[in-house]
């Protein structure tokens, strides 16, 4: 007798990156989570630009390959969006009922969304009351072009998108929210996702997103610098980058006698300066509201977090505690045998998206 009719729907988290496409499925394992299946495929060159899928069929084919590699047969997907045109803002507005705000949300969002509000998907969450008959509201806006292009690519790969999430929300869910008794959930932290083409910085205070910013410098910036200086192809530059240890830059005895590190140092320092600017902007906003909530810790993830010594060097430059973390650094996740000794930096977003399908994080 078959009970397939009553089987719970299997969701797949889909992370469509400019460098690679990651997919994964998660299942409960006692009071923990297990990444039961995951796969990855190289994103076709120039097929995703500024978050928009510009070559639908190429991305769909790569996504099919990732699904096949992971032996995933589920057809319900949860995808994420990110980038400079995706807005996440914590704003303070006059107090009003939720139904009233829903009717006027486009007007309210128009003050913060740089692109046309009519060409964006807008959502919000009322966070609570504020002084002087006001309330704090989290507004999220994503260009329709980004969302629709990603949904279309998934459809051509045989997936039906049921939820579109923000990638930073997914990463926070996987690394912080699911953790057993996480102290970080009660602190003000910065989540730094170093991808291939962009670095996304989010500040979260007691579980509430206060700010997100996208920086157009990331892993490929460093790879390109090595390629150009040493006349290498992309693969050799990537391999060389992976072998460098940034802790050597902490040497106070003088300049580092390591030509590749000397080439990369100005680019790394420039990225860290942009991260500092993001944190300073957040702090200035807090000062305006008379609420001092300084960032006490930075969590770095994404492919760029693989660089040895990155957390230590960032901590030295920014004077803040920094930790590199992947999905398997969260005690709530069970590490499979073939993922032994892997932090799961690249799976942070995909696993967080897959977790979105769970009605409740126990």
What would a concise description of this structure say?
This protein has 362 residues and is α/β, with parallel strands linked by helices. It has helices at residues 56-70, 98-109, 144-156, 167-177, 219-230, 234-242, 259-288, 310-318, 348-355, and strands at residues 11-16, 20-29, 32-42, 48-49, 52-53, 76-81, 87-94, 120-130, 134-143, 160-166, 188-194, 199-205, 208-215, 297-301, 321-324, 333-334.
Keyphrases for this structure?
362 residues, Nucleotidyltransferase, domain 5, 2 domains, 5-stranded mixed beta sheet
Can you give a write-up of this model?
The N terminus is likely disordered. The chain has two domains: 148 residues, 2-Layer Sandwich (Nucleotidyltransferase, domain 5); 149 residues, Nucleotidyltransferase, domain 5 (2-Layer Sandwich), CATH 3.30.420. The chain has 362 residues and is α/β, with parallel strands linked by helices. It has nine helices and 16 strands.
